[in-house]
């Protein structure tokens, strides 16, 4: 599935229709499918009502597969415009969700302004960029990534960078893993087809 606008991206992946979502996509991918983003900026302000909620651009529930930019330079940009987070990921159906070469920028919410990982999700972040994301909570942190909800979450980072992220508490400007809520591993290997040489 190829997308080139926030409306198309939202309709393919924002499948949560629970209490925390204001809006749900209308042509959600099948489990295990891949969504390929065209190079460009993706913003809620350019898509009408096509964002997951007032605090998350995209809101997935149990979805797995792959979301990736057509190019590996992280030139597909989820710009939260300092008003919400990039993505809220609630579980992945016991399977792996891979997010590749996406930039999460200008997120601003209480916690996990780039990405919030929740409820037993398994996620690989490869060649992603998290920049200028801010967690405003007075009790926790996670400017870029917040991992939570008393269920084991697994997050693997490959070639992913962080810059200019902040947490108002000073706890985890880039990453905050709520105690005992998951495992986060920063791998010293490059994602395929790249090598360390």
Structure description:
It is a single chain. With 197 residues, the protein is mainly β. Helices cover 4% and strands 40% of the residues. The strands form four sheets. The chain has a seven-stranded parallel β-sheet with strand order 1-2-5-8-12-16-20. Helix 1 links the parallel strand 1 and strand 2. The radius of gyration is 15 Å and the shape is globular.
What is this structure, in a nutshell?
With 197 residues, this protein is mainly β. The protein has one helix at residues 6-13; strands at 2-3, 34-37, 40-42, 56-61, 65-69, 76-79, 85-90, 96-100, 102-105, 108-109, 115-118, 122-126, 129-131, 134-135, 145-148, 153-158, 161-163, 166-167, 175-177, 182-187.
Amino-to-carboxy terminus distance: 33 Å
Structural class computed from helices and strand pairing? mainly beta
> How many individual β-strands?
20
Form type:
globular
Strand count, sense and barrel status of the largest sheet are: 7 strands, parallel
How do the strands line up in the largest sheet?
A: 1-2-5-8-12-16-20
Q: What's the overall average pLDDT, rounded? A: 90
Assembly status: single chain
Order of helices and strands: EHEEEEEEEEEEEEEEEEEEE
Rg:
15 Å
Determine the fraction of residues in helical runs and give it as a percent range.
under 10%
Provide the low-confidence segments as ranges. none
Distinct helical segment count: 1
